[in-house]
Amino acid sequence: MTDIVIARSMFGTTMAFHIIFATLGVGIPFMILLAEIMFLKTKNVDYSIMAKRWTKAKAVLLGIAIPSGTIAGVQLSLLWPGFMEVVGRVMALPFQIEIYAFFIEALFLSIYVYAYDRISAKARVISLTLVTFGALASAILISNVHAFEGTPAGFNIVNGKIVDVDPWAAFFNPSFFVTAGHVALTALMTGAFVTASVAAFKLLKLPFESRQYQHHFKALMLSLMVGGIFSLLSAINGHESAQYLHKYQPEKLAAAEGLFETQSHAPLAIGGFTNRETQEVDWAIEIPWALSFLAGNSFDTVVKGLNDYPEEFWPPLFVHTLFNGMVAIGSFTILLSMIGFVWNKIMKKDRFPKWMLWLFFSTGPLSILSIEFGWIFACTGRQPWTIYRILSTADSATTQTNLGPLFAMFLAVYAILGVSVVLVLYYYFKRHPLINDIEGKSQEPNGLTIH
Fold first, then answer.
1. H/E/C letters for each residue in 277-343?
2. Which of 176, 322, 398, 448 is the most exposed place for a label (fewest CB within 10 A)?
3. How far apart are CA 324 and CA 345, in angstroms?
4. How many beta carbons lie within 10 A of that of residue 440, not counting itself?
């Protein structure tokens, strides 16, 4: 591999690892908040137990998110000095504000955890609302740098120098709201489906008559409802994202759909693999005119094809597979959420068959995989640019060589951290089984007795 490929691989691996914990760092606090709200509304102790146990998981995941995020920040400076020079002059605002967002998240999480038994249920809801706000704000602010890379704004380049800098125009770049919405919605969706996955797995091993079964059933239904809602909202937002690609990054949209020739009434290619030689998407199912409608809400919308651009400006054609995988997973989770709702709420079934529980279990890993697909598609689909049409990836990268051994060391670090977090979660909850919380929860704080 060339040094630039190693640099890309190193940073890409760091982000692929970090994004799991960053995403769950947004989604799980929201689920904790909902559990506390349900407890406040219903006085059902199961929701209080959910909140406390999910908080333990959040704390462990945060312990990995912070160092992996720090590594990502250091690698940005060391591996991509050309990019950071532009960001430092134009787009430093999100990084500066993100510090305060993280401060809010950490402060109120500490209040919730350490003062849990000393504050009222309403105060806990307020604390968790601010934790969720801080986590969402952090994710949106950092992701805004990615939005800026795709739709740069707020500066001009004259004779190779950056001039006329307007940091707020850069901050509110054309794709800010679409990107922020997608990041928030998919993070909340993923957090919900990860908790659904855990609940479904527990239900597979428990007898229906057990007290723990009823607890996990409530957790599963809450998670499926939340995950389904945010999956649907993510799909709607994804449609808007496609329209922004059509307007601002047409090569990326063309690569995502394997479209080589500019045309109106363009078909939407579902599945298959893009063939560069034949300029076709092999094994795809084509929906006539659908891509034009997706891009511009009209069947006669003209969608530009890859052949309108020099081949060196084409994104890697495998992004079509990533895009399809992301859409397929989103559609699958929406369908499963609807099935769960109909089965329980309309058909009035009080348990799910095992085959259905296995499908529910799959939603957590699949949601995380979808997040990975989405970020790889978003970043790789912008190639060969770091900042679209302004700064190439080659011009952004460090001139340092011999990065291979360093990359291998980072891979070892991530492997150790990944195994460690799994083991810590496993042994903690093994030593603190759910039944202990259920049996020890007969007396709630603030004088509330649960019978």
1. CCCEEECCEEECCHHHHHHHCCCCCCECCHHHCCHHHCCCCCHHHHHHHHHHHHHHHHHHHHHHHHH
2. 448
3. 31
4. 9
Burial degree of 83 (CB within 10 A; 0-12, 13-18, 19+): buried
Query: How many other CB atoms sit within 10 Å of the CB of residue 333?
Result: 30
Query: For residues 422 and 429, what is the distance between their CA atoms, to the nearest angstrom?
Result: 11
What is the reported pTM? 0.91
Per-residue pLDDT of the chain (451 residues), as tens digits, is 687 888 888 999 999 999 999 999 999 999 999 999 999 999 899 999 999 999 999 989 988 888 888 888 888 888 888 888 898 889 888 888 988 998 999 899 999 988 888 888 889 999 999 999 999 999 999 899 999 999 999 998 888 888 889 999 999 999 999 999 999 999 999 999 999 999 999 999 989 888 999 999 999 999 999 999 999 999 988 888 888 999 999 999 999 999 999 999 899 888 889 999 898 888 888 899 899 998 888 898 999 999 999 999 999 999 999 999 999 999 999 999 999 999 988 998 888 999 999 999 999 999 999 999 999 999 998 999 999 999 999 888 888 788 888 889 889 989 999 999 999 999 999 898 888 888 875 444 443 333 3
The stretches of 115-210 forming alpha helices (DSSP H) are: 121-150, 167-171, 176-205
**Encoded tokens for 222:** 């809450």
Two structure tokens written together for 313: 């400006």
Burial label for 137, CB within 10 Å (0-12, 13-18, 19+), is buried
Residue corresponding to tokens 């250091």: 74
- ∠55-59-60 over CA atoms, to 5°? 120
Hunting for tokens 């105060």 — which residue is that?
123
Cβ-in-10-Å burial (0-12, 13-18, 19+) of 389 comes to exposed
Whether the bond between 310 and the residue before it is cis, its omega within 30 degrees of 0, is no
Nearest to 386 by CA among 1, 2, 8: 8
Q: Which two tokens stand for residue 291?
A: 């891509």
CA distance 236 to 155: 31
Rounded Cα gap, residues 258 and 265, in angstroms: 15
Structure-token pair, residue 15: 């982000």
Give the largest CA-CA distance in the chain. 75
